[in-house]
Amino acid sequence: MDDPSSASNKRKRGRKPKVSPPSPDRSSPSAVAAPAPVPVARRGRKPRRHEDPADADAARPPSPLRRRVLNTVANGGDAVAEAGPASWDEVVRVVPCMDAVVKVFCVHTEPNFSLPWQRKRQYSSSSSGFIISGRRVLTNAHSVEHYTQVKLKKRGSDTKYLATVLAIGTECDIALLTVNDDEFWEGVSPVEFGTLPALQDAVTVVGYPIGGDTISVTSGVVSRIEILSYVHGSTELLGLQIDAAINSGNSGGPAFNDRGKCVGIAFQSLKHEDAENIGYVIPTPVITHFIEDYKNSGGYTGFPILGVEWQKMENPDLRKAMGMKPDQKGVRVRRVEPTAPESGCLQPSDIILSFDGVDIANDGTVPFRHGERIGFSYLVSQKYTGEKALVKVLRDSKVHEFKIRLATHKRLVAAHVKGRPPSYYIVAGFVFAAVSVPYLRSEYGKDYEYDAPVKLLVKHLHAMAESPDEQLVVVSQVLVSDINIGYEEIVNTQVLAFNGQPVKNLKNLATMVENCKDEFLKFDLEYDQIVVLETKTAKSATQDILTTHCIPSAMSDDLKA
């Protein structure tokens, strides 16, 4: 069929529409027009060729996607010329990588952070994944978060196979699965990984999005390569921005280049009234880091960070005041994480000049590829937890070099609980909990950054843990009883001290309360509030309150150990 949008099909001045000749694709031998009778030319115009309907498909130039499909072969994706048009049955045979894309079915049972002694109602979801070497399957971490059961179904199969989750990388949003049934792996070639694509390179995203049950293919180009914010991981890593549609269900599906090699994993998209077709892909350097981390350590250890906050040095007066020479560039250290290994050598107002021999510019970027620059955190994320890096700093106009052991980030307000049930402690109806991002989301919804109390948000965004086990402990709610009259309105208020002793974490608070022999229990809260309860009465009333609210225990299992 001819393209109805072509100019030759528009009616002009009442004349019959003329059929335009096809423009053969010079890159594909199959796009050659069949010979046809030549009509008599009129008014000096060139004679037009007419297509026979049977030859229309052969004569029409193939679409970019079909051209890539026709030029992809089973031996690794090298482009070859095929004689004549291929039917869709032939297409299936020449694209084995499609058969490696699987549909992921997961049953989730999320913890209830607002009522931490129980879980929410289970729900099901579907997403995408793909088979790699070593009898492994890759998908997104958020696709199997809080899983109770995971099943995989191959393309064209009616069987769902039980899967085992080997590792979940929350920061990079990647999960590694396997299937014990040998039948699952029969007749499937694993996906091979390609190199990091360049801008404007074509990509094809394959998966099982909403809108149907069969496999779906969308195509586009790489429009941006930079450090991206990973929504699920609450971190920043290298990412690709593409203009191919990534919808719900596409998560975990591979993105292929023109050679049929995987260059990334689809994982999120931008939904905004001013933006269209903006999708994001986890690139191969991040995927390779995750896989190698699992191979070397037998589990996921995370992406290390340089535990500092830094400031750009683009202002010439600032550089001069810090004692920098005209040929020196770098960034200024604002704060150092007390729990990070860097706290033993780096200091505020140090100027970081280079990381592992790569000079850092005044805006915090380093050379990436030809004509491109990227944030120097990319160099840090390429390292593995426990590895050492050489950091060159300028301090008091003198250059110092330090070998720093890299570690993962320890946040005061944890971004993830990583599959663990939430901790809680109850006494006299007061429910104490440790604040985390899932807790804030449970209490205030997806827009918790706007609706949560300002003091909690400030600590979430800016506070640093002074010790590895420090937590932000709050009175989550008060289960009303005669013992706590007058305290009912205390909600999500931080606990600063108990009987004059600072509260380090939830377990520390529970231990102090359980071992208290004083006459009163006194809790010092923020905003200069205090809660005072008689010790003997408070502890005896706790069991009745638990029974009333069908709570099995006064504390979570992790606090009992």
UniProtKB/TrEMBL annotation:
Q: Which Pfam families match?
A: PDZ_3, Trypsin_2
Q: Where is the composition biased (Low complexity)?
A: 25-41
Q: What start and end residues bound the annotated signal peptide? A: none
Q: Which GO terms describe its molecular function?
A: serine-type endopeptidase activity
Q: Which GO terms describe its biological process?
A: proteolysis
Question: Which keywords appear in this protein's UniProt record, sorted alphabetically?
Answer: Hydrolase, Protease, Serine protease
Which SUPFAM superfamilies does the protein's record reference? PDZ domain-like, Trypsin-like serine proteases
Basic residues compositional bias, start-end = 9-18
Q: Where is the Protease Do-like PDZ domain?
A: 414-558
Where do the record's region annotations for Disordered lie? Answer: 1-67
So what family is this one in? Belongs to the peptidase S1C family.
Name it.
Protease Do-like 9
Provenance organism: Zea mays
Q: What is the lineage of its organism?
A: Eukaryota, Viridiplantae, Streptophyta, Embryophyta, Tracheophyta
